[in-house]
Amino acid sequence: MQRKKQQWSSKIGFILSSAGAAIGLGAIWKFPYMTGMNGGGAFFLLFIAFTVIIGLPILIAEFVVGRGAGEEAVRAYQSLAPKGITKYIGHWGVVGAFLLLSFYSVVGGWVLIYSALSIPGFIIQNGANYPELFGTITGSPWITILGLALFLLINIIVVSFGIQDGIEKASKILMPLLFIFFIVLVIRAVTFEGAIEGIRFFLEPDFSKLNAENVLYALGQSFFSLAVGISVMVTYSSYLGKDVSLPASAGSVSLMNIFVSLLAGLAIFPVVFAFGLEPAEGPGLLFIVLPEAFASMPFGELFLSMFLLLFLFAVLTSSFSMLEIITAAFSNKHNRSRKKVATITGILVFIAGIPAALSSSTLANFKIFDKTVFDATDFLVSNIMLPAGCLFIALFIGFKMDRQLVKQEFTAGNNLGNSLFTTWFQIIRWLVPVTIVIVFLTTLGII
């Protein structure tokens, strides 16, 4: 029996859900520590440039593929180009989403644990040693695995309810709260004495600090934070009606992503510098540095709880999209229950995520190319699979997909002229692939 096709109930539901998919660990956890480790303002400027010039056109391209096919990622490419290797681009996305979710959920588990511990009076009144606390949590096999399991359980429950009743309903509540909480935190952060140094570090570019590796990381960060390259947005846009403008929706998502990244930097770096802390702390920046700073604030317990709750919201809305692309692919292909597929997928992601969860404890000495399982998975997905996926999608749009259908989807729901379509199409066809290849070759030292 044919099941009713999933649909977004409104344009705003689609945009907020897409923004939720994009704004998560990338903007709030990874962006600040990557910026702190890779040149501050120069990295931020590169990130914005890559997001606008490369990431936004790719986001539009994923929207075009998804709505043009009216299918989730795997079937979309197969239906639009049934012959040739390009029909496997959707499979690349599903594998990428699976790997990304496996280590993403580990951090999601950390956030869940910290959110519980941040209940006013629990951590701060006990005078916790934050580096030691972070080490205790990430270094405990049972705590990290429990956090991983609980985080994935929440994802399974929400995704099981489908688009309107699950992801869209959650995003309509969580995304506005995210912006409200962040603005409050920024206002508090920039009022500290000495905060101006943090603002300068974040907003004044010093290009002498950049190298080829920093440029690759900035490119990967722009893709990671927009959730492009693994066809998540192909699946999301397949649920969209023809009356919605894809360029306008993509522009809204990109602007929200840049805005949240800006807010993240303004919430974190002023506090870091005001308290004489280290901006290049790495993945533990949020979990070590900020609790230390919040503990010294008036109403610090409240601000810490608000920040971690905000962080949890963002991580969840983003992880929903990763589980959705896998769930949609298998539930549609085999005509199986969404709830059953989401549950099985969640269990498989849990098993795959265990090595990453144990990277700071039992498997701390196990290295892959001198990286822990967690770091190796992060590097593989962020700096190889996402850029490569974006390259595949750009080539698919530019040379494989029917150009009339591409134009039809680009112009549907808007009054944009032919010149804007032509400009975007040429960017996708030539500028995006050339830029990605040049960054890769430069990083490898070939050019």
From TrEMBL:
Pfam families documented for this protein: SNF (PF00209)
Transmembrane spans: 12-31, 43-65, 92-119, 139-161, 173-196, 216-241, 253-277, 302-329, 341-359, 379-399, 427-446
Membrane-related topology note: Multi-pass membrane protein
PANTHER family reported for this sequence: TRANSPORTER
UniProt name for this protein: Transporter
Keyword Transmembrane recorded: yes
Keywords attached to this entry: Membrane, Symport, Transmembrane, Transmembrane helix, Transport
InterPro entries cross-referenced by the UniProt entry: Na/ntran_symport (IPR000175), SNS_sf (IPR037272), YocR/YhdH-like (IPR047218)
UniProt subcellular location: Membrane
GO molecular function, one term: symporter activity
Similarity-based family: Belongs to the sodium:neurotransmitter symporter (SNF) (TC 2.A.22) family.
Phylogenetic classification of the source organism: Bacteria, Bacillati, Bacillota, Bacilli, Bacillales
UniProt cross-references to PROSITE patterns, sorted A to Z: NA_NEUROTRAN_SYMP_1, NA_NEUROTRAN_SYMP_3
GO cellular component: membrane
